[in-house]
Design brief:
alpha+beta; 7 helices; 11 strands; disordered N terminus; globular; 31% helix
Length: 254
Amino acid sequence: MNYTERSYRQQHRQEDLVHFQLGINETDLDIGIRKERFSPELVKWVEETIRACRKPLEDYIQKDEDFVRSLTPYTVSQDAPPIVQTMAEAGRLAGVGPMAAVAGAVAEWVGKAIARRSRDVIVENGGDIFMRTSRIRKVGVFAGDSPLSNQIAIEVRPSQTPLGICTSSGKVGHSLSFGKADAVVVLSPSVPLADAVATATGNYIQTTDDLEKALEFASRINGVTGILLIKDDRLAAWGSIKLLPVNAGTLVKD
């Protein structure tokens, strides 16, 4: 089952922000910024920023095609662009290939650039979120057919941000997963790391009996601050992660 725009992206959109979408090749971003910062000129600048983020990655891939194919930690050249090195390091820590961190790496690169112009910013890229916020926010969790889907939200406080909130699923979306989790959500100050760890953790989960060992695996990785696992009607959580019920019309909490 693939996500739909309404059932997926609505879970992180905030009523006090302006959200807009930009797609360039495989990159498809939903971006939220403060209303007073929004302008057509800013949208054009963000589009240029995305292209500037992608170009060194695309250039490197042309020279090193194994970087894309590897499903295990991969050593890149010493002169590789920073975004490539960041992806490789995240994959190494999580025990997966570097492309498991690509969506998180792009979200973080673009999010940090926008954060220089907007105090509040959310960049979502295929379920992987960069967030910086000046107020308490709630981010809903979509978990496919699980009865817990759209019932749980993660509270994010300003002191936790900038923060990566990354989701992997064996049932929802297009990303490669060898598991059958309904949702694996990982929090980390490093969005690429959260992305890679979410993928790696999801690979552990075939049944609800696997939740404990998956949680143990992810919690041992340095840099991970919070974990939420959902499989069928069960969940497991660890770390600095506050779960709240989702209430209609309360996407933002002051």
